[in-house]
Amino acid sequence: MAPWYSLHWFSPAQWQQFHFAYPLALSLIPAVFLLFALRYYLHRNAQQRLNMSLGQIATSRGQRDKGRSEAARSLVSSLRYLSPITVFIGVSLLLVALARPQIVREQREEQSEGIDIMVAIDVSSSMNETDLLPTRLAAAKRVAQTFVAGRRSDRIGLVVFAGEAFSLCPLTTDYELVKQYLSDLNGQMIRTSGTAIGDALARCINRMRDRPVTAADTSQVTEQLGKERSKIIILLSDGDNTAGNLDPTTAARLAKAFNIRLYTIAVGRPGPFGNQATVDEGILKTIASIGNGSFFRATDVNRLRAVFEQINRLEKAPVRIRVYEDVQDYYRIYLSWAIVALLSALFLKNTIFGNVLED
């Protein structure tokens, strides 16, 4: 930081950085100027002037020194304004100090508890149909990656299923890892044919269950209940439950018992289209209803993207914003300048200049 006596403090760039706590004090500076102007106007005829016989010197030296003598007379005459100008500067700087020039640096801190999201994606052979270009699975992967990239402070996990279900990625805030897993999905990951929706839900629920509370945790039970994270499962499939050991409706009731909300998305167009597999929406609607969630149908890529955007709007954890302000005051600098100016005015008034330049 520059020393107080540096002229840097009067540069326009420095003044643009200032925030004035009491800007009304600055508006008094023009009023002070008007008072000085009024005083000069009322006392202009009563001013005392020192007449110096510089003309005699000019005559003796010749006409060539006449211009120099007149300039000297003009300079001496103008010096009588030095004292009131110095007082005006001192008072103005006092008002600047009273306005409290500050530099305020603001820091914003966003805090969110976040939510837990398990995404279950069907990778059975029917997901290779092309009614969603390039395929149902490829479209689901791209849109799911966009959804993951838009989350903040949320933990996201991934389950894949066909005739069996596997937990591919546990709940994590490493969104790049989740997106990498999504990009690696393909129809050859699970060789067992079929669609095990119930098993997929069970894998998701197992990942999201609260850990059992032990005796050592008893003192923290109340605090944990007050900070319980919201939990949701997003299941993407294009068929009925044809495999697995657990009935989907039973799994949905189990999710409801754990306060887990279910969103189901039917990927593909309903009804037979050439060799394309049909989309059975019945079980997906049922488990979404049981799980206090919603059912969506995605018949094209744009609709699938809109579904994820709607879920994104529905499932947002509240964000607490804290604003910190670092305030630095600089009024002492202008107060020091004001004292210097007023002491200079006092010096001019109480020395020989006060008699010569008295107004």
From TrEMBL:
Keyword Membrane: yes
Listed Gene3D superfamilies: von Willebrand factor, type A domain
Transmembrane spans: 20-42, 81-99
SMART domains tied to this protein: VWA
Coiled coil regions, renumbered to chain: none
Record has Lipoprotein as a keyword: no
Keywords: Cell membrane, Membrane, Transmembrane, Transmembrane helix
Domain VWFA, chain residue ranges per copy: 116-311
Lineage: superkingdom: Bacteria
Pfam families given in the database record: VWA
The protein's name in its UniProt record: VWA domain-containing protein
Species whose genome carries this gene: Spirosoma soli
Phylogenetic lineage: Bacteria, Pseudomonadati, Bacteroidota, Cytophagia, Cytophagales
